[in-house]
Structure formats: structure tokens, C-alpha cells
């Protein structure tokens, strides 16, 4: 085992796994606090379970909070130099494609548009960006079972293209609303090699 607590691939000991990912906490500047809270209230259809001048807890389901926003006076905005290390994105799931289509239409009507729409193979996804530049994924699983998704991820198609195939959100909604079979819409076309967005 390495001295910093990490282990080499293939030497990972089995440890007790958590039962759930419970919440995500975002840090922002005091100036960006209200804008970020309002963005997530709208994006997630959430409600506030507690809010002060520097801390807000939001929930959209049975949990007391799924997301928190902290106004930290020591934080600073991202620089213009491009992506920074840290959290890449947080994903939220929907049950079926019609729900993802409705979520897109509702947010589009409020001026919130996805920055990227992609069929990853194991999921059909729309990515959004919050006012601080954090990415949020809305997704629907493309397979009926986790094992089918894992099998796809072990396939040659996924090895060649672990990123996915982009799609147009309005075309996606049209296909869903037309009554086209969900399996047809979820089927990822093979476009060959692709290793980045």
C-alpha cells in the first residue's frame, strides 16, 4: 500500500461499501450564493429544507437534503485556463425516456439548456452547467438490469468508444413523443473510436 493511503490497481482490499450516495455539497462565492441556490431549485424541482445567509439545504425527494450550497468567503471563481481538477459532474436519474424529455422541455421553457446530449450506451444523458461551471447529468439507464449495463461496458464497442454518441435534444423529444419504441431510441449507434467529448 502507498504511504498516502492509496493502493495499486489489482491490490485493492475489499472494504465495507456505503448503502447510498446521500448528498452533494457545493462551495460558491458569497456573490454567487443566491444565483446558485435558485438554479438548483429550478433545475431539480427542489425545495429548501433550511437556508441561512451562507448555507442552504435542498431536497427533491424523501431525504432531508440531497444538495447543499455553502457561501464561502474564502472561495474564488474558476479561472479561464480551462477545466480544473476536482469533481467532474453529478448525475441524477430519471425512470424513463419520456421523463427525461419532459425534464428537458420544462427546463428549456425556463431558459436552462443542456450543454451536451449523449447516448453513452449504458445511459441516455443530458448535461447541464450551473452558474459556477459545475456539470450536472440527467440520465436514464438504457438497460433493464445492471448486469446488462456492465456487460455492455465490457464490450469491444465500449472499449472503442467509452464516451458515446451525441444527439440533438429536440430530435430526441420528437422521437420519444412520436411513440417510437424506447429500445430503439436507447440503442447506441456504432460510430467507431471516440475517447473524449
What is the topology?
Blueprint: E1 24-28, H1 33-44, E2 47-51, E3 55-59, E4 67-71, E5 89-93, H2 97-109, E6 116-119, E7 123-129, E8 135-141, H3 146-153, H4 156-160, E9 165-166, H5 169-177, H6 182-186
Parallel strand pairs: 1-4, 5-8
Antiparallel strand pairs: 2-3, 3-4, 6-7, 6-9, 7-8
Helix pairs in contact: 2-5
Give me the secondary-structure category.
alpha+beta
Report the major sheet.
5 strands, mixed
Radius of gyration: 19 Å
Helix count equals 6
Taking pLDDT < 50 over at least 5 consecutive residues as the criterion, the unreliable ranges are none
Which strand order do you get reading across the main beta sheet? 5-8-7-6-9
Q: Specify the helix fraction band.
A: 25-40%
The helix-strand sequence is EHEEEEHEEEHHEHH
**N-end to C-end Cα span:** 34 Å
Number of strands: 9
Mean pLDDT: 91
| Strand percent estimate | 15-25%
Which of globular, elongated, flat, extended, rod-shaped describes the shape? globular
Characteristic terms for this protein:
6 helices, 197 residues, four-stranded mixed beta sheet, alpha+beta, five-stranded mixed beta sheet
Written overview of the protein:
- This protein has 197 residues and is α+β, with helices and mostly antiparallel strands.
- The chain is 26% helix and 23% strand.
- The protein contains six helices and nine strands; from the N terminus they run βαββββαβββααβαα.
- Strands 5-8-7-6-9 form a five-stranded mixed β-sheet, covered by helices on one side. The chain has a four-stranded mixed β-sheet with strand order 1-4-3-2, covered by helices on one side.
- Strand 3 (55-59) and strand 4 (67-71) form a beta hairpin.
- Helix 2 packs across helix 5 (169-177).
- The longest helix is centred in the middle third of the chain and has 13 residues, at 97-109.
- The two termini are 34 Å apart.
- The relative contact order is 0.13.
- The model has no long low-confidence stretch (mean pLDDT 91).
